[in-house]
Amino acid sequence: MTDFKKIISHAKEYGFVFPSSEIYDGLSAVYDYGQNGVALKKNIRDYWWKAMVQLHHNIVGIDAAIFMHPTTWKASGHVDAFNDPLIDNKDSKKRYRADVLVEDYCAKIENKIEKEVNKAAKRFGEAFDPQQFKATNPRVVGYQEKIDGILKRLGKSLEAEDLADVKALIEELEIACPESGSRNWTDVKQFNLMFGTKLGASAESAMDLYLRPETAQGIFVNFLNVQKTGRMKIPFGIAQTGKAFRNEIVARQFIFRMREFEQMEMQFFVPPGSQKEWYEKWKQTRLQWHLSLGMGEENYRFHDHEKLAHYADAAADIEFKFPFGFKELEGIHSRTDFDLGSHEKYSGKKLQYFDPERNENYVPYVVETSIGLDRMFLATLSWALREEKLADGNSRTVLKLPAILAPTKVAVLPLVKKDGLPEMAQNIIDQLKWEHAVVYDEKDAVGRRYRRQDALGTPYCITVDHQSLEDQTVTLRDRDSMEQERIAVAELSSFLDAKLNPKHWLQKI
Ligand code: ATP
Q: What are the structural domain ranges in the chain?
C-alpha cells in the first residue's frame, strides 16, 4: 500500500481533496473536495443509496436539518455522555485521546504478531496455516493475551468512568508522547465533542444550539412522521446522508478524522426481541456491500466492541486496512429502544408502533448502520493508489478505483488535433455522455494522456485515429491491464454497460 503522505499529495495534485481555505494556511482537520473528489464522493454516496434505499422496498430516505431542537441532544445522551477522554503531555504540550494512545500501543504489539506470521509463512511455504499458527505459537499467543488484557482493562475503566485508572494504565505501559518521547502526563479529563452555536438575533433571546454530531437523531425524531405518511410496516428502515460535526481532540490523519464530515446512516426499526437477528443480518449485508467493490476480502475485519455506548446492547465495527493499520470504517449498532424511548420521555409524545401481528403497541428496537463517507473515500483512495513497475522498466502511478466509483469513466482522445479526429471524438462523447461521465483530452502525446487518466482513476480510454475515420473503429484501453483492443464505435455502449452498469456490481451483495 502506498505511503500515506503520497496519498495526501496525490489527492491534492489531482483535484480530489484540498485543505480548507488554503490561501489562509488552512483550517485544522477541515477539507474541501475538488473537481474529481466531489465526483468520487458522489459516486460512493450513490452506490450506498442504491444498495440501501433503492434495493430495499422497506427502506426510505429523508434529509433532516443540521440544526435540531437542543433538547434532542439531552435526550440522545450527547450533552452528558458524548465525551472523549483527553490527556496532555506536559513537555510537548500535545493533546491526545487517552484511549487512542492505549489502542496505538496495542497496534504495535499487533504489528509484532504480523511480523511473526510473515516470517513463519516464509519458512513453512505452501502448507502454512496462519490461523493455526496464531492459535498455537507461544510467542504470538502471549502477544495476543497481552493485547486482550490491556483492551479489557481500558474498556472497563472507561465504562466505569474511572479516568484515574486510564492514566495508571498509560503509566504502567510506559507509553511515551510520540512527539517528545516524554512520559510526563496530565490527568485524564472528559471533553465534550459537540460544537455549540446560537440561533436568534439578539443576545438575550438567542437559543443555544449544537451542530449535529450524528445524523441518526434526525431520523429518530421523524420516526412517526415517516411511519405514518409512508404507511411503513415494521421491520422498516430510514436512511440519510449528511454532514455531522465533532470537535475531535486529535485530528491528524487527513480525512480519516475530520471536524466536519459526512455520514451515511440507516436506522432499521424492528420488533423488541428480534434485534439480535437483525444485527447479525446487517453486519453481513454491510460487509457484502464493501466486498462487492472488489477491494480485497483480506482488507476487512469485524471488531466487536468491548465497551458499549450508553444506548447499545451490541456493537461491531467493520475495520479496513488503512495505510496506518486496521481502523474503523463503519459501525453496526444494536441501539435497543433507547433513542425512541428517551425522545418519548423528553418530548412527552408517544413514539410507538401498533403491531397488527402482535396486536400491541411498542417502542421499536433499532439496528443502525453508520459509515463515514469521507472515511470510505479515504479507504477507496488509499487502496487504489499504486506505483507500478512496468515491463519496459518504466513505472506508472495508477489509481485502481473500483470502476463504478471512478469520477470519470471514459476519456476520449483524438490521436492528433486535426484531420477530423477531434470532431469524431466529440461525436463519440455525444453518444456516451447520457450514460457515463466522459471527458475529452487532446493535449500532449497519447502516452502521456493515458498516464494522466491512470492517475485520475479513469477505467477506459478511447483513442480515435485515422483508421477510425475509415472503418468506424477505435482503440479501447483498459486502465488496469493497459491492454488495447480495436472495437467498433457501435459496440462501445454495450461494452461499457457490461462493465459499468451498477446492476452488475450491486447484484454481488
Ligand atoms: P471513532 O472511534 O473513530 O471516533 P466513532 O465510533 O465515534 O469513531 P461513530 O459515532 O460510530 O464513530 O460514527 C460512525 C461512522 O462515522 C464511523 O464509523 C466513521 O466512519 C465516521 N466518523 C466518525 N467520526 C468521524 C470523523 N471525525 N471524521 C470522519 N469520519 C468520522
A: 1-65+208-303+313-389, 83-192, 408-506
Task: Give the contacts of 423 (CB within 8 A, at least 6 positions apart).
Answer: none
- pLDDT tens, 270-314? 999 999 999 999 999 999 999 999 999 999 999 998 778 778 899
The number of CA neighbours under 13 Å toward the Cβ of 94 is 17
Atom 11 in ligand 1: which residue has the minimum CA distance? Answer: 331
Q: Say what the pLDDT of residue 2 is.
A: 66
**pLDDT value at position 1?**
56
Q: Distance between CA atoms of 315 and 305, rounded to whole angstroms?
A: 6
Can you give the three-state secondary structure of 94-146, one letter per residue? Answer: CEEEHHHHHHHHHHHHHHHHHHHHHHHHHHHHHHCCHHHHHHHCHHHHHHHHH
Q: How far apart are CA 237 and CA 223, in angstroms?
A: 10
For the record, the C-alpha cell of 488 comes out as: 467498433
Residues of the chain under the 50 pLDDT cut: none
**DSSP bridge pairs for 353:** 362
In the CATH scheme, what architecture does the domain 83-192 have?
2-Layer Sandwich (3.30)
CATH architecture of 1-65+208-303+313-389: 2-Layer Sandwich (3.30)
| Alpha carbons 101 and 249: distance in angstroms, whole number | 12
Between CA 470 and CA 490 the distance in angstroms is 14
Q: Of 422, 11, 66, nearest to 430 (Cα)? A: 422
Ligand 1: residues whose CB is within 6 Å? 214, 246, 248, 257-258, 261, 263, 328-331, 370-372, 374-375
- Closest-lying ligand 1 atom to the alpha carbon of residue 248: 27
| 140 CA → ligand 1 middle, Å | 30
Please give the CATH topology (third level) of the domain spanning 408-506.
Rossmann fold (3.40.50)
Residues 6+ apart with CB under 8 A from 281: none
SS3 18: strand
Q: Are 466 and 410 in contact (CB under 8 A)?
A: no
Identity at 449, one-letter amino acid code:
R
Instruction: Output the nine-digit C-alpha cell for 26.
Output: 488552512
Q: Which atom of ligand 1 is nearest to the CA of 246?
A: 27
Give me 352's grid cell.
Answer: 410507538
d(CA 362, CA 365): 9
